[in-house]
Amino acid sequence: MIWNRQSSDDDARTQPRNDEAGRSRLQPDTAAILDAITRAVPDPFIMLDGSGVILSHNRQATELTGQDMVGQHLSQHIRAPAVLEATERVADSGVPDQVHYERRTGGGRLFEVFITPVPALTGERVPAVAVLLRDLSTQQQLEKMRADFVANASHEMRTPLASMTGFIETLQGSARNDAKAREKFLGRMLEQAHRMRRLIDDLLSLSRIEMNLHRTPSDQVDMSEVARYSAELLATRASEAGCEIRVAAQPGMIVDGERDELIQITQNLIENAIKYGASGRGVDVSVSHDTKRVRIELDVTDYGAGIDAQHLPRLTERFYRVSVQESRSGGGTGLGLAIVKHIALRHRGNLDITSRKGEGSTFRFTLPVSSELAKAAE
Ligand code: ADP
After folding, report:
1. CB 52 near ligand 1, within 6 Å
2. Distance between CA 198 and CA 64 in Å, rounded?
3. Residue 16: band (very low, low, confident or very high) from pLDDT cuts 50, 70, 90
4. I need a surface site. Which of 98, 131, 307, 325 has the fewest CB within 10 A?
5. Ligand 1 in reach of 224 Cβ (< 6 A)
């Protein structure tokens, strides 16, 4: 077997071997079956003859290397010695093998490569070799996100727990016989317990929404009624903060959705507007059509300090906060906008945030008008 390990980018450009040498040895039926199977594989997939020449590959493999490769030697496109040696070994021994392959071009991706002998494909003594590349980068990113999330959630839980432990120790020690101190510390412990409760409620909400993410909701929900109802629920909270909630909602704003989740979105946005807005200037909530009348827009506007542009793209990440101190003092968990984003996704909706420093912010949630209304308008 002759393996061209010396090939370089120049080889790939100046010595293309599009003679389809290996393929011409295949029976026409075999070639057609091979192409059909190759196309059906969802990951990048390449079939080689026993000498390393490419017989067939799918579109995903072309996307990886940027060109058609049939008739060329594998080493013109994948230069990693580990992959080339493994393919050679598999052709020699007839035993499957698996190696890792890091492709640096195109932003760098890590693959697990499954190399399997395919006897009798070419009618030669040496088996053909199937090469399947499974992208591990996405999986690695997901694993990292999951690990970060667990670390963040544990850290968030540990903080109130540490405060409560401190208060208990004080009550057992120096404040044991001090009725006034006992009252004060019990009050603080209750605050911390409420904080843990909010955190757990939000985490459970998030996981429930994630579980239903691919089930499109289909109830008919009136977004104007949702806006008025949410404002009513928060009226006491708003007046305690010296803030008025004004609602301007048009009739007939019907969407396909799940009412409870749409209330949760609206409530989270109004709650934030109360917390971070300027109390004396109130909060405006409006519900209307877009100009083409195909989407419904719910705007929640506050007149607070606003948000620096650099933070805007990250606000919907779990636990991302501009100021942890400010968020905690308002009873925040850092999960509210992550919940909003997930509910929006499930409803094929969007969240757009515009903010002007020193003037305030508008959180706009848009979603398609109900399919029944859309059909009637056609
Ligand atoms: P939190 O529980 O901290 O309020 P959210 O996920 O609801 O968590 O919001 C994330 C962060 O976005 C907040 O901590 C705050 O820094 C910022 N934020 C959200 N809404 C507003 C707003 N209306 N005005 C200014 N900042 C906001």
Report:
1. no
2. 46
3. very low
4. 325
5. no
Q: Residues 247-298: pLDDT tens digits?
A: 999 999 999 999 999 999 999 999 999 999 987 899 999 999 999 999 999 9
Nearest CA to ligand 1 atom 8: 334
Helix (H, G, I), strand (E, B) or coil at 5: coil
Q: Please report the pLDDT score of residue 124 as a whole number.
A: 79
Share above pLDDT 90 across residues of the chain, in percent, rounded to a whole number:
76
Which CATH code of 3.30.450.20, 3.40.1160.10, 1.10.540.10, 3.40.640.10 fits the domain covering 6-135? 3.30.450.20
Mean pLDDT of 353-378: 92
- Show the tokens assigned to 80: 């990693």
Determine the CATH number of domain 137-211. 1.10.287.130
By the 8 A CB rule, do 213 and 346 touch?
Answer: yes
- Report the distance separating Cα 27 and Cα 29, nearest Å: 5
The neighbouring-strand residues paired with 241 are none
Q: Tell me which fold the domain 216-378 belongs to.
A: Heat Shock Protein 90 (3.30.565)
Cα dihedral 236, 238, 239, 243, rounded to 10, equals -170
Ligand 1 site, residue 333, Cβ cutoff 6 A: yes
Give which of 235, 269, 246 is closest to 343, Cα–Cα.
Answer: 269
